[in-house]
Amino acid sequence: MYRIFQTMLVALVLFTAVPNGLRAEEALRDLVNALGEAKLSDMDEHITALAKTGDPKVVAILEALGEGNLYARKADGEVFLTKESGSSLTLIDPISGESAGEAPKAALSKVKVNNGVRRAVRSALGSLTLLSPDRAARLRAAQSVLQSPNSDALGAIENALAAEKDSEVRALLEQARATTLLISDRPVVEKKEAVRLLKENGGREALSILSSALGSADETLKPDIEAALAAIEQTQALWAAGQNVWYGLSLGSVLLLAAIGLAITFGVMGIINMAHGEMVMLGAYTTFMVQEVVRTSFPGLFDWSLAIALPLAFLVTGGVGLALERGVIRFLYGRPLETLLATWGISLILQQSVRSIFGPTNREVGNPSWMSGAFDLGGLTITWNRLWIILFALAVFAALLFLLKKTPMGLQMRAVTQNRRMASSMGIRTPWVDALTFALGSGIAGMAGVALSQIDNVSPNLGQGYIIDSFMVVVFGGVGNLWGTLVGAFSLGILNKFLEPYAGAVLGKILVLVLIILFIQKRPRGLFALKGRAVEA
Amino acid sequence: MNYRARVTGAFLAAVLSTTAFNGAFAAEDTIKVGILHSLSGTMAISETTLKDAMLMLIDEQNKKGGLLGKKLEAVVVDPASDWPLFAEKARELISVDKVSAVFGCWTSVSRKSVLPVFEELNSILFYPVQYEGEESQRNVFYTGAAPNQQAIPAVDYLMENEEVERWVLAGTDYVYPRTTNKILEAYLISKGVKPEDIMINYTPFGHSDWQTIVSDVKKFGSAGKKTAVVSTINGDANVPFYKELANQGIKAEDIPVVAFSVGEEELAGLDTGPLVGHLAAWNYFQSVDNPANAEFIKTWKAYTKNDKRVTNDPMEAHYIGFNMWLKAVEKAGTTDTDAVLDAMIGVSVPNLSGGYSTMMPNHHITKPVLIGEIQGDGQFETVWETPGLVVGDEWSDYLPDSKDLISDWRAPMSCGNFNVATGKCGGKGS
């Protein structure tokens, strides 16, 4: 009570005694300080009041509010913009924009935000920054008025549209105008024009706007909206098929990455390596280690962390593979059952040791900026990380093919696996070729782990999820044939993604397994069977 | 010769009996507490933390002088995420190690597998994880949330504060999501939501390719009505799910996701920047600001010697359960199962969200329900909480075959599934 009285008194004194500019500043400061005490449910009104002042300083204040950087000082209730500096916060005066010293976190209380507040901030900021000289800010503003249409903003949008020169911003603003128009009380003729524009642009947003407008629309407008909805849905269905192919390719590339190392150890050498998944896991943990070092010592290199991790993961897992082959597997050649059991045991040992060293919980592997987000290609949404993984999988495949077919090492590998005794009598050191081939397969699995760390958990269980799929791909594609692995991975990926929308994820997976079993019955050697004498050996 | 042999025999017997007596005496010196959490296999990711939390609680209690003048001794076993092994290990804890109470289990299937063992050998289990309800057993105390202490308040929040009209119920394909979604579906329909505004989707364990489902959610959300996702997706599958959400640009302001299985531990493996504003419903958050919680977090970080370790809801459930058990044993003056079972009901201990939790006659506890939004630092900020405590409701009122059932383990009723319509004990469930 006393506080309110005091504020009123101060306000009274100020109103009578100080010049206009200062008075406006004090009024703004009161509005900002009110945020500190407001309840979440009243925040909407406070934000509208702030936006109504039209003061350019409000933009920075609202941005800070939306990002959760607005704090109230517990001692006197003053609200500040803040910046993180170690364990305390640097205070910035909201009106003057000058630094107001530092304060420990315990002396401040955060101005609470929830989704409702963020939406209100977004819409207020949208209409405030529509005329900003900065193109990026205008683009953001146009997007936000489009996303949260508000019939009060119609005038502001039309003003902005009249002044806008940039074509991209203009297109967004046109859409925003049409959207806002539909919910305003403008005449039906204008609304019809808006529906036509939305129909032309199409897309999911238009669908959403039109179907929500349908309920409250005028009788004469309804047929227009319904026709537009039908037209958009039709094009969306076509794009959905394209989207499924893309998802299939993307799933296929993940399968290819997981399986390609196995295509060498199992496909070429014939070792049933149950620890293959753990090589993938070790590769992912190498990425984690690299990122930890980069984060603490060279934060500027973060976007390069994956490029640094790739060769390291190859070396680490290749080394583990080499040790495995020399230590265990070479004693078990020709005894597939024992190999299976031994490698399965090794996989458990590797899992548990990673669990003991790094702990059982997930580890955070960040996405570099060039692997985050998505872009639109027509009606397709393409996420960057998936696109890079497809390209990476193809690159690894091409490199491996080159290595096997065009280098002396590849020649020796093929010679040894096709006819060991003959190769040996030609002077090839077969035990070393075996070891190197196994190390190569493991190393490639490790590189796959670097890529998979971007889309999956980095936990000790990472490998288990891929081992079955990898064997499936190699067997389906044809043991011993790299091209078979490529075609097998992509066809399984696409098949899976076309089944999923109809059968659901659980049933879809089962159906794929059943189909593979049937296929193997018909063609026991897979899609691309090896032919010739080498097979019989 | 004969005589000598007899003397030696008697002497030996005497020696043996004294050692046996000594052994028994040594065992009497400590009270044993069993910890039944997976330390290897798929569930180790969640359960190892709970084992550490229990060890810390026991350690702290011993520093305060133990219980009934004796030290507490933890017996840790590893059921290795293998459901039948849970039953075997439980039997080993009770009959070989003679523990007085067991704290353990995470998945519902592991709990179901140990139930007959606890019933047969008459021991006590504290179960700390939110679960689907539809169960109340004499030997089990449920310190995690029942559906009405988590799922239903979360849906209410979305309906009132976010004005959600269209619902995606997404879950992993097993008993907890299936039952919870059944309850939620019945609840939503009772609130006037049309069946075509509810989309239910199940995925296998460890699902990692979320592209199709996330794009389906986007499509479902573009029907002009405010849409939200209620996620009962379990464990490891969450990380790729949230990554896909972030990459496909689904913002919390447009389509919020409220999760029942995502806590501070799960977020530790994620960059939460793009996820700010997505929600979780729990009975405790690490960010809850009160002295008891601050003390608990400090002890936890010191015990694990790791400044980055986070606390979560099931840990709090063990904290409550353990303190309740201490109080009940003190009240009963013995660790005898039947006496403790009787003493447990009505016991009230402070929880970490700033109030008291009480053990009810249905073996569930009272808790506040908090809704939190994910923050950029991997913590939650409470944006809403129930005005008072919510009593765990074991038999859901929204399912036709359980709405007439109640549970009351006090004499003379002593029944976990009393049917108020027929007036008889017995019906669905245990």
Automatic annotation (TrEMBL), chain B:
Pfam families: Peripla_BP_5 (PF13433). Residues 1-26 form the signal peptide. Keywords: Signal. It comes from the Bacteria. The keyword Signal applies. NCBIfam families: urea_ABC_UrtA. This is Branched-chain amino acid ABC transporter substrate-binding protein.
